[in-house]
Amino acid sequence: MILPIYAYGQPVLKRVAKEVDKDDPELKSLIANMWETMYQASGVGLAAPQVGRSLRLFLVDTIQIMEDNEKDLGIKKVFINAEKVEEEGPEWAYEEGCLSIPEVRGDVMRQPRLKIRYFDEDFQEHTEVFAGINARVIQHEYDHIDGVLFIEHLKPIKKRLIKKKLENIKKGKIGSEYKMKFAKK
């Protein structure tokens, strides 16, 4: 089932999410719905707060954005109750966007390597190191479960330039090719 994506201005996007209970009877269907929602919106990652659930859960599929000869370098994973262990390397800029903030993009500085501990959808624990675009997408989604949006990483001048767009998103005055839920007017 395709879920509405919560737009900028929704309080759930600014909350630090709660840990997922491995016995949550709705977890499997939530994950399935999140995959369907993410693909329908042409996303490469989606966090539970973006569908209105304040849970430490996100999913990532970078395989779809890899060049044909590099598909095996992409990842398709579910991250539950993730914890960053370490980030390293010189920060690099990359233009990011977000399904919750349509039509807004900007360069975000992030470190290129990430070591993270998490549980998969079967609650098997993993500690892995990711690099490059895989690390970046994970860092972006991880920010969501900490109540941080990518626009908070933008330079002050860029923040001023997008202020009007953000107000329009908050008010629901924006077109979107996918179902969204806007803040109350």
Biggest sheet strand line-up: 2-3-4-7-8
- The percent range for strand residues is 25-35%
In CATH, what is the homologous superfamily? Answer: Peptide deformylase
Query: Which regions contain 5 or more consecutive residues with pLDDT less than 50?
Result: none
Whole-number count of domains: 1
Task: State the secondary-structure class.
Answer: alpha+beta
DSSP strand count: 9
Radius of gyration: 16 Å
Helices and strands, in order, run as: EHEEEEEEEHHE
Explain this structure to me?
This protein has 185 residues and is of the alpha+beta class. The protein has one domain: Peptide deformylase (Peptide Deformylase), CATH 3.90.45. The protein is built from 3 helices and 9 strands, in the order E-H-E-E-E-E-E-E-E-H-H-E. The strands form 3 sheets. It has a 5-stranded antiparallel beta sheet with strand order 2-3-4-7-8, with helices on both faces. Strands 1-9 form a two-stranded parallel ribbon. Strands 5-6 form a two-stranded antiparallel ribbon. It is globular. The two termini are 27 Å apart.
Quick recap:
With 185 residues, the protein is α+β, with helices and mostly antiparallel strands. It is built from 3 helices and 9 strands. The strands form 3 sheets. The chain has a 5-stranded antiparallel β-sheet, with helices on both faces. It has a two-stranded parallel ribbon with strand order 1-9. A two-stranded antiparallel sheet has the order 5-6.
